[in-house]
Amino acid sequence: MDVKAEGFAVGVVGAGAMGQGIAQVALEGGCKVVLHDAKPGGAEAGRELIFGRLDRLVEKGRLQADAVAGMKESLSIAPALADLGSCPVVVEAVFEDLELKRSIFAELEKHVAEDAILASNTSSLPIAAIARNCARPQRVAGMHFFNPVPLMKLVEIIKGPETADDVAVALAELGKRMGRTPVTVQDAPGFLVNMGGRAYTTEGMRLIHESVATPAQIDAVMKECCGFRMGPCELMDLTGIDVNYPVSMIVYEGYLHDPRLKTVPLHKALYEAGRLGRKTKAGHYRYDNKGNVLDAPSPDHVTDAAPAATVSLAEPDAALEKFLGGLGVKITASDDGSSPILCAPIGEDATSVAVRTGADHRRLVAIDLSADISKRITIMTAPGADAAARDSVAALLAKDGCKVTAIKDSPGFIAQRLRAMIGNLSCEMAQVGLASPEEIDLAMTLGLNYPQGPLAMVDAMGTRATLRVLEQLQALTGEDRYRPSLWLRRRALLGLSAKTAG
């Protein structure tokens, strides 16, 4: 199938937001589009919205007026599914209802050519289930775009168990023609991006559930220390709890309750309470009519304590000693019995460090040096800690304008836990062959706007350090939620990159 041919026609079933976006990028790619919607007048209304967006692109100078005029002529309306019969590719973009999709595909098979490709824009339903009753399941695949389609460059091409290789190749080429970057993925719950994206939000929720940190603290650390555009809590509020909670449950149940994909009761409580985020003006935060956060809580630990003049180390640590050297604080060779005791653990909590080293847990302050600390630095203390010791360290760290976030005791702080969980889940996707390491990183950066691919994130942390964080989390919590992927363990033990194939 020559998807690059002039006048190549793409049928689109469903003229809602996703269908409109798919039709628009197909038109911009030089395809003809035949648009169908079951609702009377739905396709016509969708057409007008598409034309309006194209006109605005002309106003902004991004498209030429004559080119848009040609695009408008290339869009036609199909009153019935039978009118899509001449299209070599039909993309279904209706809402997530398995029986509805099956009925659409069954009807399309009566009218399209034998070599026509039928693709579903489903974000969560298995392609195998959609194609189950099709006469020719080998021509059925997933073509999962991301919302808003014109802005999101990724498209997942999902191969069902019977999808022919040439069908996946043709859809990937069509995706390129539409200006998208295709990533070919095996059929699995949540596919690649929706499965891989579970770690960021569910581990953020876990930190709140454990009373380790507030949503504002978690979001600030992930943005300012780890380079994410949005923290997990504000991201959930933006996409909607009514979207991310059901998807989390679909993926969790689809993977037969793998604890690495489990969410927490608070997530369900927000969903059932109707605190869905910006759309309801309340989620993790409260919002005004314009989507601005009301009474935004501060993630900063502010104190008027005097900066610590003298500290000791719980154990030798060259990186921590070098960092403290830049602050001009005196480091005593041994504990003087009154000064704060500092440590910079990887994976451990302050309690574990105190027990292992014999340090006085009341004066022990743990500092996270694992991420970017130019703008914000995270500290934590064990239960029963002396607030004066904590505050004197916070004041020391804030001397040069750096903001400080003080959290409760947690194996791996905030940044280590979240990045390790993101990386571990992506290592597992590589382990089971969901996609190649390169495609996993590409998809997660394009589909979720991560600052770097999750496997690259593991390499930046260090495979051994990432493994240590997970091992400590699993040991200290007793939860298999944190069990390391074999992909990660083997590469960490061998000193290899997380992207190493084989």
From TrEMBL:
<dbReference type="Pfam" id="PF00725">
    <property type="entry name" value="3HCDH"/>
</dbReference>
<dbReference type="InterPro" id="IPR041040">
    <property type="entry name" value="3HCDH_RFF"/>
</dbReference>
<feature type="domain" description="3-hydroxyacyl-CoA dehydrogenase C-terminal">
    <location>
        <begin position="412"/>
        <end position="495"/>
    </location>
</feature>
<dbReference type="GO" id="GO:0006631">
    <property type="term" value="P:fatty acid metabolic process"/>
</dbReference>
<dbReference type="GO" id="GO:0008691">
    <property type="term" value="F:3-hydroxybutyryl-CoA dehydrogenase activity"/>
</dbReference>
<dbReference type="GO" id="GO:0070403">
    <property type="term" value="F:NAD+ binding"/>
</dbReference>
<dbReference type="Pfam" id="PF18321">
    <property type="entry name" value="3HCDH_RFF"/>
</dbReference>
<feature type="domain" description="3-hydroxyacyl-CoA dehydrogenase C-terminal">
    <location>
        <begin position="190"/>
        <end position="287"/>
    </location>
</feature>
<feature type="domain" description="3-hydroxyacyl-CoA dehydrogenase NAD binding">
    <location>
        <begin position="10"/>
        <end position="187"/>
    </location>
</feature>
<protein>
    <submittedName>
        <fullName>3-hydroxy-acyl-CoA dehydrogenase</fullName>
        <ecNumber>1.1.1.157</ecNumber>
    </submittedName>
</protein>
<keyword id="KW-0560">Oxidoreductase</keyword>
<dbReference type="InterPro" id="IPR008927">
    <property type="entry name" value="6-PGluconate_DH-like_C_sf"/>
</dbReference>
<dbReference type="InterPro" id="IPR006176">
    <property type="entry name" value="3-OHacyl-CoA_DH_NAD-bd"/>
</dbReference>
<dbReference type="InterPro" id="IPR006108">
    <property type="entry name" value="3HC_DH_C"/>
</dbReference>
<dbReference type="InterPro" id="IPR036291">
    <property type="entry name" value="NAD(P)-bd_dom_sf"/>
</dbReference>
<dbReference type="Pfam" id="PF02737">
    <property type="entry name" value="3HCDH_N"/>
</dbReference>
<feature type="domain" description="3-hydroxybutyryl-CoA dehydrogenase reduced Rossmann-fold">
    <location>
        <begin position="347"/>
        <end position="411"/>
    </location>
</feature>
